Amino acid sequence: MSADEFEREHKAPLSPDERFWRHPTELADVERNKHFSHAPPLGRKLTAITATVSAVASIAILSVAIPKGIREFSEAEAEAVAVTTTVDIPHVKNALTTLVATATGTKGSTTAISIGSDAWVVAAEAVDIKKPLWLTLESGEEVQVPFFSTNEDASVILLRLTANQSPALAKKWDRYLNPTSPAELESFPIVDRYGVHHLGYEQSVRHQAKPKELPLLTDSPIDGAAAFIDKMMNVVGVAFDSRHSTWFLAKDSLLSLLAEAPQSAPR
Description:
Radius of gyration: 39 Å
Helix content: 25-40%
Structural class: alpha+beta
Mean pLDDT: 77
Strand content: 15-25%
Number of strands: 14
Shape: rod-shaped
Distance between the termini: 120 Å
Order of helices and strands: HHHHEEEEEEEHEEEEEEHE
Strand order of the largest sheet: 5-4-1-2-3-7-6-14
């Protein structure tokens, strides 16, 4: 101790910051605090083991926590999506050309469904029959439409490459479906130029404009018109868009359309 520390007026102990010496216990406290303020480093091996154990534990907890029914539903749903997106567009049995072509006019492009004998069905609202129309076939060939027919309510148009009306064509449609409810159509895929669609689980109960009109609700929008096909790749129905909704083309409407005299299309 210095002489000044013994000659002070007040004899109370000095605080640590006012004296030059340190008590051994104070030095021990300093070293202990330094030790506790720095966490010991973890080795890479210990870190990897900890991460692996955590991942395994998380997977085990999730496998127990998620009910079995939910897992099965998710897997089935994923398989269903895969099927709808990988199915190729089929060909119509005994048709001269493929099932689907592209009709193009002043309103743009839309799907045309082949019903044989060089005749194609399109949604009326997707084309302008007062202007020239072209059909693009699978081969890439582009043909201008020379004739057309329309049904009584002008909801669909029949594009014709010839003016011939074949009686055999009307008889061919004995297999065409005549459903009274959408439930009768659920097993049939629906095809347009973009791919395959299906009917939705909750069908519309809207009031029908006419008794023969059957409203449909598809899982994805169709491209103006689309074909219902069976396992033998036969066309058994036609769906079309009209008045902001999708409808099933009734069998008598199709037969009436086939019997309609062709009109000359604009050139």
